From TrEMBL:
It is an enzyme of class 2 (transferase). One of its GO terms (molecular function) is phosphorelay sensor kinase activity. InterPro entries: BphY/WalK/GraS-like, HAMP_dom, HATPase_C_sf, HATPase_dom, His_kinase_dom, HisK_dim/P_dom, HisK_dim/P_sf, PAS-like_dom_sf. GO terms for biological process: osmosensory signaling via phosphorelay pathway; regulation of DNA-templated transcription. It catalyses: ATP + protein L-histidine = ADP + protein N-phospho-L-histidine. The keyword Metal-binding does not apply. It comes from Candidatus Viridilinea mediisalina. This is histidine kinase. Pfam families: HAMP, HATPase_c, HisKA, PAS. Residues 339-391 form the HAMP domain. Residues 514-735 form the Histidine kinase domain. It is found in: Cell membrane.
Amino acid sequence: MKRIWKQLTGQLRYQIIIPFLLLTLVVSVIGASLSFFFLAQSIDERFNNQLASIASSVTDSIVAQERSNLEFLREAAFAPENNDPEVAAPAVAEALATNDRQGLARALHPYFRLARNRSQLRIDRLIAFNQAGETLVDFESFGQASEPTVHAPFLIQGLPYIDDVLTGRADDLGDKYAYIISFDGSETYYLVTIAPVYHNEQIVGGLIAGMRLDSFLTMLRDRSQAAGITAYDTAGRILHSTFVENTDPIDSDFVRGFWNNPDITSEGFSVNKDLQLAPREFKAAYAALFIRSEPLGIIAPALSNEFVMSDWQSAFAPILGLVLVLAVSIIIVGVFIANRITHPLQDLVATSKDVAAGQFNRRATVYRENEIGQLAVSFNQMTEFLTQLYAQVQSEASQRAAIVDSITDGIVVVDDQGDVQLINRATRRLMRLPDDAPAPKKLSDIPLEPLTDGVPGFGTQRAQDLYTLGDFIVRASIAPVVGVDQSRSGYVCVLQDMTSEVAVDRAKTNFIGTISHELKTPLTVIGGNADLLLRGLVGRLEDDQASFVETIRLHANNMAGLLQNVITVAHLDAGVTTTDLEAVELARAVDEANWRVQSQIKAKGLTLTVDIPSDLRPVWADFDHVRQVVFQLVDNARRYTSSGGISVRALDCGDHVRVEVKDTGRGIPPDMHEQIFQRFIRGDGASEGINSAERGIGLGLAICKQLVERLGGTIGVESVPDQGSTFYFTLRYADDTPKPEKSSSMAAAA
């Protein structure tokens, strides 16, 4: 329809016809609008009445279900002893009083099973808890399963009304309560009823009967024939919705006005509101859910607006047909008149199209003594100028193409949609593409694969944007093509052949790793033998002898640690190090890392404190990587701290955790905060020599940075000279892992 309208308004003759057409349409539309107005009022009123009836039926069903659940709890709470040999269950109250889990399970199992088979009763979960607030029995049934699922015991204290039930507190309506809750903090909500259990006139615990909100709302939706039902809490947040599409919370202004309405407690009260769930539209009736005179939330059944549209369509067709007949009549007359006026322009338009198609020898043949004739003369002059300009541009383009084709690096030019516009001869060489073969259509068609196996390091930084292209290794760099007016017209990708450089770097890395590994073995033997001498394996040593042997052991162990860092770097560069991501308990990794260095910290007279919250969620990481990062940071703090202490703590930052290692050492100058994570940078600068047994060679923090980035986190330092340092790194939680992303520049161009 838009394309037809554009064609109509884009031609002069239709610009003459359309005003007559619009005048006729205005008269027709006014009459049709009046008819539609009165019809809409009738349809809308009937629609609203049906929606209000569904809302009242849904809320009444929920209240009735809660009452049935309460009757069920009374039966279960007063259940007597069952002497049937197949059951052999004690009374429910007695089992609760004695904390008899097995007996209580046998006593409640028949009631839970029968409750699932009653048509007027719906129990999805049954929980029995003792006076200490610990669950003894926790049954839950899913679907048509014959046997319930038994949940592990947990402390139920702290949930709403639990303390009221256990202490015998009651309100005007009694000592039973109802509310909506999620037991384990997940998105599964239950409508529960809770009641105390008495034994010898003493409260010994309580029972909770719950219905899963998701399945209960689905049942109510099918029973009421609503399009969908959504449950909200009292603040308007979504608890569950039967709609497949995502629904939004209720805005705060609507919720505030809803609860402040003086008629909210009236029978059948509801507020209608439009609901947009793309691509469909609904109208929902928001009704308050009161149980025991307490507001539990808002129930919103909804009907599709297609119900209204069907009646609209039946009345719309006849009126639309009349309007179309009148419009066609006016168009026929208008076309006849417009053709007489616009015929000279058709020749000019045809000529302009031929010129645009490349026929630069065409000229307009309109000869009129009016504005159209003047337009034809100007058009012919413009065509002559464009012909000369085109020849000049073609010559310059050929020269630029020859320059690009002579560049030794691969050049790929793409537009904003990723379509390849140009490749040079070097790119064809890298792709093994013959000169007469067609170029790839998309940048993504070039088989560039990120180099992950043994990414080399050049200088102090690791090489970035390295890819494999067939037998070649290339460095790919992307830059936007920006015009004089700062508008972007695409991207240019440069492919630099790095095959030889990478081969040399890999050989260097393998050589360093091999030499380091060969040196580590004798150093380990020296350190081990020195330790045996100190332990008196060959007899008691003199004080001077023991001092010399201790020096040998310390320096051997320190050198072995330095070589281990070199081996680790070699493994990282060679791609040997693997990263196995899984849910990791951070506290265990920190404890194992601290255990390796705590004796050295204690020997130096320093204190070590650890603050890891007990309820901290598991992180998504590699256990060995986390342990090594914490060890390197704590050991680094030990080396550069002469007095005071070291603290390790974890901070919950919402979607990730921040681990901090803080010391009371000499601090790091601000200009070193970025450099300190580069290889061979340590102390006060890269030029400082190895002058202490406590000093490393500047690889520990570089290893930490690579390992943390492998885990998808970040690492940094906050430090002021003479005031200590705080090294930190971040990790994602296991239940909130990020999705992998492509390189931003390559993704934008592709």
